[in-house]
Structure to design on (171 residues):
């Protein structure tokens, strides 16, 4: 995989315009969300949040559906899950704002949405702390039990390999 291009902006761009339906962190009942879930109509464009290289494009992790992982400069990784269609392949260079997928309901979700994560190395951070302000769309998360939350341990197992630039192995 080639090295990613330098970051284009000081903050990450929103990958999708929509309402945040599940926020970052504890959701109660022992459930933890390592990202945010953004409601969207099926087929809505999903955009790269920053310049980077596609480290993974596939559907091998149960529950996450069609998943993209993009490696960025300075150790950042973004994850985009539950996509309807993936439009890029592993190794592709992507630019901030480039359409990389369409919103969908793949994996274990009941309605079209995007599960989006930002990680520094392998550590998940709250995307709302690192994203540009979202124009004209409410983004106050509702704390709800959500069947579409990914199994964080599966994604966590992928990340050390991605940071090194190798293809993750599914067990």
């Amino acid at each position: 995989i080639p090295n990613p291009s330098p970051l284009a902006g000081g903050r990450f761009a929103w990958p999708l315009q929509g309402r945040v339906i599940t926020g970052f962190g504890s959701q109660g009942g022992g459930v933890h969300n390592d990202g945010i879930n953004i409601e969207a109509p099926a087929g809505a464009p999903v955009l790269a949040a920053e310049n980077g290289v596609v480290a993974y494009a596939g559907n091998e992790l149960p529950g996450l559906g069609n998943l993209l992982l993009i490696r960025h400069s300075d150790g950042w990784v973004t994850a985009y899950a539950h996509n309807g269609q993936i439009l890029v392949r592993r190794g592709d260079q992507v630019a901030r704002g480039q359409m990389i997928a369409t919103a969908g309901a793949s994996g274990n979700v009941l309605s079209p949405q995007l599960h989006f994560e930002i990680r520094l190395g392998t550590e998940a951070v709250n995307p709302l702390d690192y994203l540009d302000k979202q124009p004209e769309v409410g983004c106050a998360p509702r704390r709800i039990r959500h069947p579409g939350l990914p199994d964080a341990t599966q994604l966590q197992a992928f990340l050390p390999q991605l940071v090194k630039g190798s293809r993750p192995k599914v067990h």
Summary: The mean pLDDT is 85. The two ends are 22 Å apart (CA to CA).
